[in-house]
């Protein structure tokens, strides 16, 4: 193709690719009050979204033809396998950040000399950090697979741990105190039944795991604790 033909027919950028990069840019390489950051988890999420586009492209080819062949099957299987692997990797990245945010291996920080050298490599090639996303903006950013754009702050995680510990203590101690104050068999059984139902509904609504067997196991464990206490309280009342 002659140069003039290339100028007359410029390559049209993929709109999905551009929108994906634009949405993730401020979460990947950004600047906050502490310095520059390079978030590999956000980079991975951007890639996951583009992988979904590739799956749809292959599906579109199959649907247009109205049939599949071995090549389509192999291509689709490989794309799905890579996407499932990416989902598992995302969970690993999330767990690594939650365990030790200060030493998160998927977040490069300019305060560290070795990582600052890596980040300066980007700046040296004209890739400058974007303005960091404020917490109020985060909810307005486009959704991508894998959960929140970034991890909650250490203060927020600490509050969540304390709140969970407090709620866990209350849902166990409150019914026991009530059964001691109202030491009748009917009251004990009614308290156990009501608290177990409330616990089951709360776990089903708030638990990150929606597997029925896990919800059943948690409810059964809670009910077993109350039943043991009811048995002891009933014997004590006789």
UniProtKB/TrEMBL annotation:
Record's keyword annotation contains Transmembrane helix: yes
UniProt key word Acetylation: no
A Pfam family recorded for this sequence: DUF6594
InterPro entries noted in UniProt: DUF6594 (IPR046529)
Keyword field: Membrane, Transmembrane, Transmembrane helix
Residue intervals passing through the bilayer: 162-181, 187-206, 213-235
Residue ranges of domain DUF6594 in the record: 115-227
Signal sequence range: none
Name of the protein in question: DUF6594 domain-containing protein
């Amino acid at each position: 193709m002659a140069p003039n033909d290339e100028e007359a027919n410029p390559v049209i950028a993929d709109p999905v690719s551009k929108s994906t990069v634009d949405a993730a840019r401020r979460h990947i390489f950004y600047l906050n009050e502490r310095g520059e950051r390079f978030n590999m988890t956000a980079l991975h999420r951007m890639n996951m979204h583009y992988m979904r586009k590739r799956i749809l492209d292959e599906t579109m080819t199959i649907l247009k033809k109205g049939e599949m062949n071995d090549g389509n099957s192999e291509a689709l299987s490989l794309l799905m396998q890579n996407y499932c692997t990416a989902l598992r990797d995302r969970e690993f990245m999330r767990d690594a950040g939650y365990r030790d945010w200060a030493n998160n291996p998927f977040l490069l920080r300019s305060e560290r000399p070795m990582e600052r050298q890596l980040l300066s490599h980007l700046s040296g090639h004209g890739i400058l950090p974007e303005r960091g996303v404020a917490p109020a903006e985060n909810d307005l950013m486009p959704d991508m697979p894998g959960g929140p754009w970034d991890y909650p702050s250490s203060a927020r995680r600490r509050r969540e741990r304390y709140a969970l510990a407090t709620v866990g203590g209350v849902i166990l101690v409150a019914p026991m105190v009530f059964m001691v104050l109202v030491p009748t068999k009917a009251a004990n059984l009614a308290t156990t039944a009501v608290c177990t139902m409330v616990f089951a509904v709360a776990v089903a609504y708030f638990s990150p795991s929606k597997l029925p067997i896990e919800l059943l196991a948690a409810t059964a464990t809670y009910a077993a604790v109350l039943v043991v206490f009811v048995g002891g309280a009933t014997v004590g009342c006789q």
